[in-house]
Specification:
Blueprint (H helix, E strand, L loop, with lengths): L1 H24 L1 H10 L8 H28 L3 H18 L11 H24 L7 H20 L8 H18 L2
Helix pairs in contact: 1-5, 1-6, 1-7, 2-6, 3-5, 3-6, 4-5, 4-7, 5-6
């Protein structure tokens, strides 16, 4: 009975960790949606394209992660923490704000690749750790990216959020410490 309870608690913590990771890597998608939609009407092409590109990148990352898992078994915690740390560092130094008058499909794809790579890196890390699978992780990350871009578009025209790079980077650094300490 106690073992089953511990397993349920562990699954809930894994789900929480995966969900927080997905939300964290979507912060730049929010900023992209916001920046690209200033003084423009919201359109579904951008969030749908970003979500589709993120999904495809995450599927590839999950497959690669599952292939690498047996080779990295003894180093999974450190591998995952290193990727989270690198994502945090990249988030802090990333320049904010892109503003385009008309957004073409090709630009939407480019933006999707730009903001989807961190999701793919996080999926790679999670897949190597055995968290989630090739179906659920990409869907979760694509959904959070879609939601973030859509929310950014919806808030365009209001006050511009400041220092989101530091927020995103800080969240990654916290996740890195959580991973290293096995919390």
């Amino acid at each position: 009975m106690q073992r089953a309870k511990n397993c349920d608690t562990e699954k809930k913590m894994d789900f929480l960790f995966v969900t927080i990771t997905a939300i964290t890597v979507s912060v730049d998608s929010f900023v992209a949606g916001f920046s690209l939609s200033l003084n423009k009407k919201r359109n579904l092409q951008l969030p749908m394209t970003v979500a589709a590109v993120t999904y495809l990148l995450c599927v590839v990352a999950c497959i690669v992660g599952q292939i690498l898992r047996p080779f990295l078994e003894n180093y999974v915690k450190y591998f995952g923490a290193a990727i989270l740390f690198a994502l945090g560092a990249m988030s802090v130094v990333r320049q904010e704000g892109i503003c385009l008058s008309d957004i073409s499909f090709g630009q939407c794809v480019a933006i999707g690749v730009s903001v989807g790579f961190d999701g793919a890196a996080a999926c790679l890390s999670l897949a190597v750790q055995g968290l989630g699978n090739v179906l659920t992780l990409p869907l979760l990350f694509a959904a959070t990216h879609f939601t973030a871009v859509f929310a950014g578009q919806s808030l365009a025209g209001t006050k511009r959020p400041q220092n989101t790079n530091y927020l995103s980077g800080g969240m990654f650094f916290v996740l890195c410490v959580v991973k290293l300490l096995d919390l």
